[in-house]
Each structure stands twice: as C-alpha cells, then as structure tokens.
Design goal:
The protein is of the alpha/beta class and 402 residues long. It contains 16 helices and 14 strands. Its cofactor is Mg(2+).
C-alpha cells in the first residue's frame, strides 16, 4: 500500500469519464485517463495517453470499475482519501462545493433536467464511486457556482418576470470551475492586481463559453439556464432565435423533445459541417478544400469574437483576453481568426508566440504593442476540484476506513 493520500477526481460526461489522481499534498496529477464511448460497443479506457483498451462492461459503472482496476494495478486503491466530482448544474440550490450526502444527491437529481447531457452522467459517476469506494468522502464541485455572483441584469431573461419568480427561469452559466482557475492564474501571468481587474475568458472545448471576470468575480457569461446558450459548440447550436425553432416545429411537425435533441446533439460544428464535431477533423478538412468545414469554423469563430467583445462591455476595464479548453489551448487557427476579428479592441497577435504548441503551457500570445494582452492558460479543473475536496473533506486513507 502507498502511504501518501491521493484525491480521485471524476468528470463523468455525456459519453466519457475523465479521471485524475492527484497527490493530496501538492494537488499535482499522478495519473490521468479517460474512459470513452461509454454505453456504446466501442467503449474503451486509456490511461496517461496509452493505447485504448476495450471496456469489459460498457456502462458508467463498468467505466468506473475499470478506473478502480487501473488504480489497483498501481497500488493506489487504498490511498484514495477523497473523491471530487465535477457536477455541471447546481441550480440555485448550490452556490458552493459541498460534501455529498443522500440529500445532496436528491437535490442534484432535482436540477438535472436543466443539464440533461451532463448531470445524469455526473450522478451515475457519484453512485458508482460510492459502490467502489465505500466510506470515502465525496465532494460535488459545480460548474454553476462561480457564476452565482451575476447581477439580475446579467442573469434575467427578457421574459415575463413571473417565470423567474414562479419557475426560477434565469441564466446560471457553466464551466465556472475552469473560469475560476484560469482567472486566478491570469493575475500572475499578466501581472495585474485582482482587486482592480477585468478579464474575458474563452473556454473553448466540446462545450464552450465566455466569462467576464471583474475583480475576481464572474459578472457575465454566455451560457444560460442550460449549457445550450451562447457560443456555437461541437454539437450544440448556441444562441438561436426561438421564433426560428417555433417555425421549424410548425413546418416539420417535430416535437420539443425532437428539437431539443437537434439543438443539443446534431447542431454546432457537426450540424453546419455535416462532417464532425471535432475541430481537428474540421481544420484538416478545410485544409483539404471541404467548403462546409470552412463555413462551420468561420461561423464558430464569428460567434466567439462577438461574444468576447460583448462581454468586455460588462467590465470596467479590459486587462486581458484568455483562451483555454481543448480548442483554446491547442488551436492556433481559431485564436488567429478570433483575434483578427478583435482588432476593433486594439488586439494584435504575435504570430510566432501564437504558433507555440499547447505543451508550452501558460503564455502571452499578443504583440507587445497590443492595447489588450491575449494569453493561453491551460485549464485545470481537476486541481480546483481536488482543492475543494481537500478543503471540505477529511483525509482518511481508504485502508483506514476498511
Ligand atoms: N491540437 C488541436 N488542434 C485543434 N483542436 C484541438 C486540438 N486538440 C484538441 N482539440 C479540440 O478540442 C476539442 C475538445 O476539447 P476538450 O476541452 O477536451 O473537450 P471537453 O469539453 O469534452 O472537455 C475538440 O474539438 C478537439 O478537436
Ligand atoms: C456543462 C458545461 C459544458 O458544456 O461542459 P462540457 O464542456 O464538458 O461539455
Ligand atoms: Mg469541457
């Protein structure tokens, strides 16, 4: 048995389980991996970037069991002192991370219809982890918490007020753990005081959102009551005229349920390109002359630039525009195209700095003459989740509990 305690962080997505094992003393990652294609015939697990291995059981429980087996192989099973879970939606019930109890699980279930692609999977992860690590304290860290500082003018929709009063219809925002981490890192990188600062952060992954952070607090964000509003994403449409949806329903006879599937799973980069939701595939296809891949990327970029500029209006000053997430950290093309459209803000990119690979870590990518600095900061939601778990939970080795 290893003597040192570790924190297991689990991010159960709509078809994958990402996991990390972090040293409880330093919060540095010792091991990371992904179980992907969950609930499909091709479900596999890959640890530390190794060759994928087929999962024996294809569901979330099977994926978690395979993760536990990987820990066992490395003699880490009994070192797991705490488990931190990424939970997408906490609604208005959770403004902070919390220890998981049966009551908390019930409350998370209550808000889950608002983030159907994410929350039910998150809960499957919690329940499977309870079975596999009995007695180990588990902590829920919500994507929505960081945005609880939004003022009513930023979170209200222009709908009759009774929908807010009676049904709680409002914007919540997501990716808060990422926006929180990236903003904290940005103060050091850009050498600016948190207490008088304004940042716009673009988290660009399969899900994508913009956040305006004023003096360390989220004051505006592009996602809404559900993770569908705002930017165009891998398979989600982002902002769309409700009138257009009503018209489509009338013309095609599709139900709300049909259209919900279309806007969440068949739209965005996938829907426009007709090819893929994966940006790497689309960049290559554009390069090879695929017109709709180009159209999808340019539409994606247009939205990002428009939302970054719009979010700047929620700040009292603009000290930096930061890119993060799988696309923000790795796609030189997207950063180039987005910042080209932001010249109106006095932003100038340094092409050489922008060409550095994702592995270069935190870096400024704007020219010295740029009126507003731009930077790339790799997100680390796992570290934030582990830190919250350590703050809220008690470190006991699983071996002590057994
Ligand atoms: N080197 C790269 N160049 C361009 N896009 C990339 C690169 N690496 C990853 N991506 C894109 O990042 C996206 C996934 O982002 P990620 O943040 O990992 O997603 P998730 O929201 O599932 O966590 C995909 O569209 C993928 O193509
Ligand atoms: C819930 C916010 C979101 O879109 O998450 P994802 O990027 O993991 O899909
Ligand atoms: Mg993501």
């Amino acid at each position: 048995m290893n003597e040192f305690p570790v924190v297991l962080v689990i991010n159960c997505g709509s078809s994958s389980v990402k996991f990390s094992v972090l040293d409880a003393a330093s919060c540095e990652a010792l091991m990371t991996g992904i179980a992907d294609g969950v609930n499909t015939d091709n479900a596999f697990i890959s640890v530390n970037g190794s060759e994928p291995v087929a999962l024996a059981r294809k569901d979330y429980e099977g994926a978690l069991a395979a993760i536990a087996l990987e820990l066992e192989k490395r003699d880490l099973m009994s070192s797991v002192a705490l488990i931190g879970h990424r939970i997408a939606h906490g609604g208005s019930l959770f403004s902070e991370s919390t220890l998981i109890t049966d009551e908390v699980i019930d409350q998370i279930r209550q808000v889950s219809p608002l983030a159907p692609l994410h929350n039910y999977a998150n809960l499957s992860g919690v329940e499977a982890a309870q079975q596999l690590f009995p007695g180990v304290q588990q902590v829920a860290v919500f994507d929505t918490s960081f945005h609880q500082t939004l003022a009513p003018q930023a979170y209200l929709y222009g709908l009759p007020y009774r929908f807010f009063e009676e049904l709680g219809v409002r914007r919540y925002g997501f990716h808060g753990t990422s926006h929180r981490y990236v903003s904290q890192q940005a103060y050091g990188l850009l050498n600016i005081p948190e207490a008088d600062s304004g940042l716009v952060i673009a988290h660009l992954g399969n899900g994508a959102s913009i956040c305006a952070v004023r003096n360390g607090r989220s004051v505006d964000t592009s996602m809404g009551m559900t993770p569908l509003e705002g930017l165009m994403m891998g398979t989600r449409c982002g902002d769309v005229d409700f009138g257009a949806m009503a018209w489509i329903a009338e013309q095609t006879g599709q139900t709300f349920e049909d259209l919900e599937r279309v806007v969440n799973k068949e739209s965005g980069l996938l829907g426009l390109s007709g090819l893929s939701s994966d940006l790497r595939t689309l960049e290559k296809a554009w390069h090879d002359g695929h017109e709709r891949a180009r159209l999808a990327i340019e539409t994606f970029v247009h939205r990002i630039a428009r939302h970054i500029a719009g979010h700047a209006a929620s700040l009292h000053r603009l000290d930096g525009v930061i890119f993060t997430g799988g696309i923000g950290e790795n796609s030189r093309l997207i950063r180039q195209l987005v910042t080209d459209r932001l010249r109106v803000l006095g932003i100038q990119l340094d092409e050489e700095k922008n060409a550095q690979p994702g592995s270069a870590g935190e870096r400024v990518i704007s020219a010295d003459t740029s009126r507003v600095p731009c930077a790339v900061i790799p997100t680390n939601e796992e570290k934030m989740i582990a830190q919250d778990a350590l703050r809220l939970g008690k470190v006991h080795l699983a071996a002590e509990i057994a």
